[in-house]
Amino acid sequence: MNPADPQSAQSLSRSQDPDSVTRDEPTKPTPPSAEIPAAQDRGFASRHLPGTPAGELKGMLPGMAFIALYLLLLAALNAVAALRDVYGAGLARYGIFILCTLMAIGVFGFLRLRRWGWSLVTAGFLLLAAGDFYFYSRRHVGFLLIRGLFSILFFLYLSRTEVRERLQ
After folding, report:
1. What does the pLDDT look like over 110-124, one tens digit per residue?
2. Of the spans 1-10, 21-30, 78-87, which averages the highest pLDDT?
3. What is the tens place of the pLDDT at every residue in 30-69?
4. Do the Cβ atoms of 144 and 136 come closer than 8 Å?
5. What is the pTM (predicted TM-score) of this model?
6. DSSP characters over the chain
């Protein structure tokens, strides 16, 4: 049998496919839309939708990294201010220094996507907002109001399910 001969090629294809013995016309390829039903989504399992178990989504959102660096900067500045007696020389000085240290530790845990780091960071933003609003009510400095509003905004961002799903 000569492979270049169309007659021998047709007899070869008939011998391989038993259904083609009764058919004389060549088979037409089916369009891709006919192979997959319209309601079936094959990529559904690979996508991560809200409500997935904790730790399944990997990686950090860009907002999470920015918030962590912002809180680290605020904690460092407040710790230096506490060491220089800006908050007074008594018990408040050491209390602020301990809170800033806890917030800095929380930032490093948050950057490693740990739940305990997330909880320390969210609590830190609530404490910063409460302190800023308190001092704004006493001194009426606009900067404290703006910083307190940013702290509340960052707290609300950290409370989103997309952020909490990425923690371990």
Report:
1. 999 999 999 999 999
2. 78-87
3. 555 556 555 665 665 565 555 555 545 678 898 999 999 9
4. yes
5. 0.64
6. --TT-HHHHHHHHHHH-GGGGT--SPPPPPPHHHHS-TT--TTTTTSPPTTPPTT-S-S--HHHHHHHHHHHHHHHHHHHHHHTTSS-SSHHHHHHHHHHHHHHHHHHHHHTT-HHHHHHHHHHHHHHHHHHHHHHHHH--HHHHHHHHHHHHHHHHHTSHHHHTT--
